[in-house]
Amino acid sequence: MTNKPVISSTGLFTPEESITNEELVESFNEYVARYNAANADAIAAGEMEPLEPSSVEFIEKASGIKARHVMAKEPILDPDVMAPRWEERPDEELSILAEIGVAAAREALERVGRDPKDVDAVLCAASNMQRPYPAMAIEIQQALGIEGFGFDMNVACSSATFGIQTAADYIRSGNAKSVLVVSPEITSGHLNWRDRDSHFIFGDVATAVLVEDAAIAPADHWDILGTKLKTVYSNNIRNNFGFLNRAHPETEGTPDKLFVQEGRKVFKEVVPMVAPTITDEANRLDIDPHGIRRMWLHQANSGMNRLISHKVLGHEASPDESPTVLDTYGNTSSAGSIIAFHQHSQDLAEGDIGLICSFGAGYSAGTVFVRKAA
Predict the structure, then answer these.
(1) CATH no. for residue 270?
(2) Would residue 251 count as lying in a domain?
């Protein structure tokens, strides 16, 4: 008998602190005013370009984002710092990334009454790992009291959906009965808060998805009908930070060691890649794309989501068909589509078919077609 992978539960950790666009713009514009004043002579002589202030209207038109949750609000809004800061923890203490991952994982387990000892594996699937090793997944595994194994995986914004397919494959092969896919995303750490074109994009959060064999899953679960992954190399979304930078200390802290992107190119190239990936997989699974009940899309840009959902559904998607969490969470990288699924899936009826889809740097795209069970 073939093992059947399902999604049994999800969990979500949301930081208490949130930054509104108004707060962000006030901080950024103060930094701009100070920069332009400090370099007034060079700017007047044409040797330097002045920085342009931002606005709430610009941010919302460009992204659809109105606020974002963060782990360290005060230093981000401080014009002298404009980056997250927290005390470094000793090696014996649970790291901050593992801490929020554990919180999301615990909620996923508690929602279905699953004992951590019944879980076989932990996959930490996220964009920005706190360190190269020991693996964040193994630290989360240890903190939860899970036996078995764990490892990290990074496919940028598609990490969670790639993790779900990996977990589903373990279930199908019989190598595991229960797998946690945990996506702790402290994306505020890789963002250049001094860049007008991107300082508003990201927020912090953690999600968890419990993928299990249907034989042990609760009655209320989601069947995983099929998954499809795709990658195409591109430099249009990039982060050059890494341990090899230490060989060239003069480059540490330069803007290209943080998140950079060519937004217009990303929009024009990713949409034509993602929409056919969705429809092709739907056709393979004998699913009418126009009949997809709900799409939980990657929460990066409202315009991109509108266009992708229109191409798949054949009409302008309603908020019910393609719910958004982008407005209050910002772009949370791999966690975005999982937040949308976590918050907007309980109302669907038995037999309803939905799609969890992510896309981002790489380029990468991951689709997970699901069907509501009992």
Answers:
(1) 3.40.47.10
(2) yes
Q: What are phi and psi of 225, to 5 degrees?
A: -80, -35
Chain length of the chain: 374
> DSSP secondary-structure letter at 92?
T
The answer to whether the CB of 297 falls within 8 A of the CB of 311 is no
- What's the distance, Cα to Cα, between the start and end of the chain in Å? 21
CA distance 272 to 284: 19
Question: What is the pLDDT at residue 164?
Answer: 98
124 included as an active-site residue: no
pLDDT tens readout for residues 304-318:
999 999 999 999 999
- What is the rounded distance in angstroms from the CA atom of residue 238 to the CA atom of residue 331? 15
In the set 109, 146, 157, 312, the catalytic residue is 157
Q: How many domains does the chain have?
A: 1
Q: List residues bridging with 212 in a β-sheet.
A: 6, 178
What is the extent of the structural domain holding 227?
Answer: 222-372
pLDDT digits (tens, 9 = 90+) for 268-298: 999 999 999 999 999 999 999 999 999 999 9
In a domain, 204, yes or no: no
pLDDT tens by residue, 179-218: 999 999 999 999 999 999 999 999 999 999 999 999 999 9
- Residue 163 belongs to a domain: no
Q: Are 203 and 69 in contact (CB under 8 A)?
A: yes
164 found inside a domain: no
